[in-house]
Design a protein that fits this description.
Helix content is about 30%, strand content about 20%. Helix 1 packs across helix 3 and helix 8 packs across helix 12. The protein is of the alpha/beta class and about 500 residues long. The two termini are about 30 Å apart. The C terminus is likely disordered. The protein has a 9-stranded mixed sheet, sandwiched between helices. The longest helix is centred in the middle third of the chain and has 26 residues.
Length: about 500
């Protein structure tokens, strides 16, 4: 396997440098890139925030956070331990600038420090994306000179609805060209999400079956055990739908449902995604479910309801759970519903895609065998599971359900990966194929616009913390004669797994 090229030298400017995103995801990802050896010796990082920090205090805060997360097996940064030689190298590249992103003086000071190629990363709340674009533009920091690049990375949510997304796009495009804008969605950086294209288009045993002729429906789930974790004031402005659906879940949907791109080039892949997202129909009123977690028990520990969380209105109508039934108006998916769900304080952490096949066309077994199912596990025990029927041992022709599993770590060396590593590296390399184009931002907002309108009034259905979600989400599928895949881990199929060298998994 050819080693990846070293990225061009540049300065990475992190707006919101004292925030959770930088500490928990971005700096750990940069550490992983340092370990992999793909960063140029002249790569530098400037952090900007209103917090009263110095270079040394910022570095120490990041160092402490890295050690804490590396020692926590449940953390997304699962390095196990920190290499002190790597940290010393990284630490020497870090510098801090105290500044307010709404003030011109911040950008004037920054302009004196940034020379050559640069990436400006908006790791801040969405309401600051516009002011940052204005500040960078007025200070000529987005002007590209010969041989250098200037790029702007914008986090989600990109707008609060279709109108605000378009307005934000217009503002940014007033200062930068489209090729300079990298609208990031960290779900697209996950190895298992990127692997969907390889699974579909490199394997003849899958792609011919990936259509309405064989599939009954598709489920996409992003379930969390965690609650709002002290981010109540943020969640009050956002809610589960805006936080997860038009970005994360629609991007996964695009990977699952798009037609084969003509090649793996940036334009071909983004065109294929854009076409299928444009074909997703607006959600019908009966096809939407919203819920909010109430008090309950999670993993044996009592948890308060959302309305009792810090920073939350005690009468809040904000949803912490959203489920939708979607239709895609393309020949491949005619008549195949896509069910999306996401929620907090559920019974398990689970991010997966389930392709449910149609029942067997043969009725020779004296009853309808259980339908086949292909499940792609995005987080946790990453891999793939196929559920099918086989003859049970003994006389007669009794059927028994069995499963074959592929576990990613059985075949590949475990490498710490949060999901941002490949995205940051791609941005440095000028590869926008894993980032969203404006049409891929706007199309999901068009589809969920009826949901946003409907949820301006009324109340979410309460569900107990530690449950599978509101009862109406089960009813959404039950009316079609279907059911959600269980959030609980299925019985392990270790007997059907083999290691890369041919030996059985233990």
């Amino acid at each position: 396997m050819t080693a990846p090229a070293v990225a061009p030298a540049c300065t990475l400017v992190l707006f919101g440098a004292a925030g959770d995103l930088v500490k928990r995801l971005l700096v750990p990802s940069i550490y992983d890139l340092m370990v992999s050896g793909v960063l140029d010796p002249d790569f530098r990082i400037i952090g900007i925030d209103r917090a009263e920090l110095t270079d040394e205090t910022w570095r120490q805060n990041l160092y402490d956070a890295l050690h804490q997360m590396a020692a926590d097996p449940a953390a997304e940064f699962n390095a196990g331990s920190i290499r002190e030689d790597v940290w010393r190298d990284l630490s020497g590249r870090l510098s801090y600038q105290h500044g307010d992103v709404t003030q011109d003086a911040t950008y004037q000071a920054l302009a004196a420090r940034v020379h050559g190629s640069a990436i400006f990363y908006c790791a801040v709340a969405g309401r600051f994306f516009g002011p940052i674009a204005d500040g960078l533009g007025k200070a000529d920091l987005l002007q590209e000179n010969a041989g250098d690049f200037r790029r702007l990375v914008v986090e989600k949510p990109f707008g609060d609805d279709l109108a605000s997304a378009r307005a934000l796009d217009a503002k940014i495009l007033g200062w930068a060209q489209e090729h300079q804008i990298y609208r990031i969605d960290h779900f697209l950086g996950k190895e298992t999400v990127q692997a969907i294209m390889a699974l579909r288009f490199a394997n003849r045993i899958f792609e011919p079956l990936w259509s309405a002729e064989h599939l009954d429906h598709v489920q996409i789930t992003a379930a969390e055990v965690l609650g709002v974790e002290g981010r109540g004031s943020f969640y009050e402005r956002t809610g589960a739908l805006r936080d997860m659906v038009p970005n994360h879940l629609f991007q996964v949907l695009a990977m699952v449902a798009m037609e084969p791109p003509k090649d793996l080039g940036e334009r071909a892949v983004r065109d294929a995604k854009g076409r299928v997202l444009a074909a997703v129909q607006p959600v019908k009123p009966l096809d939407m479910v919203r819920g909010q977690y109430a008090a309950g028990t999670v993993n044996g520990a009592p948890r308060v309801g959302y309305r009792e969380e810090p920073g939350v209105d005690p009468n809040s109508p904000i949803e912490t759970y959203a489920a939708l039934r979607l239709e895609i108006a393309t020949p491949r998916w005619q008549g195949v519903p896509f069910y999306l769900r996401t929620g907090k304080r559920l019974s398990a952490h689970r991010t997966e895609i389930v392709l449910q096949f149609k029942p067997s066309a043969h009725s020779i077994f004296g009853g309808q065998p259980e339908a086949n199912r292909l499940s792609l596990h995005i987080d946790g025990d990453k891999g793939l599971r196929t559920d099918f029927q086989i003859k049970a041992p003994g006389p007669g022709m009794a059927l028994a359900p069995v499963a074959e599993t592929f576990m990613h770590d059985d075949f590949f060396e475990h490498v710490p990966n949060i999901g941002y590593e490949s995205l940051l590296y791609a941005c440095m390399m000028g590869d926008a194929s894993l980032f969203q184009r404006a049409d891929a931002i706007e199309a999901p907002w068009v589809s969920v616009e009826p949901v946003l309108e409907a949820w301006k009034t009324g109340e979410p259905e309460l569900y107990a913390a530690g449950s599978a979600g509101p009862a109406s989400a089960d009813a959404l599928l039950a009316r079609d004669g279907r059911a959600w895949a269980s959030l609980q881990p299925q019985p392990d199929a270790k007997a059907g797994r083999r290691m890369a060298d041919g030996t059985k998994a233990g």
